[in-house]
Write a structure and sequence with these properties.
heterodimer; A: about 180 residues; mainly alpha; Arc Repressor Mutant, subunit A; about 70% helix; B: alpha+beta; 4-stranded antiparallel beta sheet
Amino acid sequence: MTRPAEDGTVLEAVRRGDARALEELYRRHSPRLYALLLRMLRETADAEEVLQETFVDAWRRAREYAASRGSVEAWLITIARSRAIDRIRNRGARLRLVKQSEQLAPAEAPQPDPPDVHAQTRLRRALGTLPPEQRRALELAYWDGMSQSEISRETGDPLGTVKTRVRLGLQRLAELLAG
Amino acid sequence: MTHQEFLDQVDAYALGSLEPTEASALEQHLTAEGPHPLCEAALARAHETVATLAADLKPVAPPPRVWEGIAREIARGQEPVPRVPAQQPPSASGAPREPPRRRIPAWTYGIAAAAVLTLVVSGVQVRDARRSAAQASATAAECAKDLADARIDVLRKEDALQLLIEPGTQLVSLKPPPPGPGPTSPGTGVVLFNPRGRALFLGKSFQAQATRDYELWLIRDGKPIAAGLLPPGPDGRVFADIRPELLTGGRPAAFAVSIERKGGTDAPTQVILSGAVASP
């Protein structure tokens, strides 16, 4: 089972240089991270490279992890997304999804583990209650790795409006998922 | 960067949607200003919410070569581990010593057969175990977020108590207008106002509206100044830190809450709560 306390213990061992602990962390979290990276980068080779970089980064920066700033899983997702965003921005040309309706479609790839239907349902329901423009701003930031300025250019909305949408959208999502 | 500016941008930071210079400013705030519990808790909550967005994805097992690449990479920074066991000393004849033969007791075959049977049964159970692990992972993420929320709640209360005991802080109770045709307030609220430039709005029993937002105002020189939207939490409580720059233009005469179209307006249309600030 993956519990935050256990993740913390495993990460503590990673800090001490225990490679088996890193393997355990990889076993627990790599399937979700890989799915996330496939979705963001849309290229298997890129997703594999960034996944590798993420865990090498976690190995080197384990001492920087602070539990007060989030769970180990959130920390790993932050590292992975940050590297994926860098890669997207370095590509120059943006990868665009064909239709906005496909934004939340699951990645097509072999599925070794069953999805957590409960969590998916809650998330979809929560996203469904957001005003469309807030949801769009979050999706462009989350999946396409766009900065708020880029979202402003993409949508034609003023930067201040985009900032408000991102802030309110994420806060609203946090409340809905907590409720 | 003030704590409020940090709180305003922390969600975009966690999403990775700030420009590099903006992101650096936030990171600098966390390190240069020293640990600020509310900022750290807000960052934790934002990270957890962003992580939750990945819950919609079906996990995909990466190919083995990814872990092999990681293992190679980290091995470069470690002492090489001997893979071959140390050789035994040669025999007296100089020929390599043969490993001692061990007689295998008959009962071990029985154990081996039982082990094989156990493995077969375990194989059937692996899928169930994976399902349980996936659910446990989601539960863990929810727990972490709940804890972050609870921490923020406690810190906000501490923040409010701290402001309340500061010299000069005034408690401005906001009341609904006389009964009329307009909307009535579902909740109650107070503003803790300190003339030295700090004010907090605390509300309870507010109900989130699908198409409308609650908006806070401060009234100065007869003019309303928008002080931000008031999104209610799941428990109906509202907490808002009024931006300090809004308090620098002179003492406000009153505070008010209105209910407006989604996103707020430039001027209040339907005031549901208001309260006057006492003269010094």
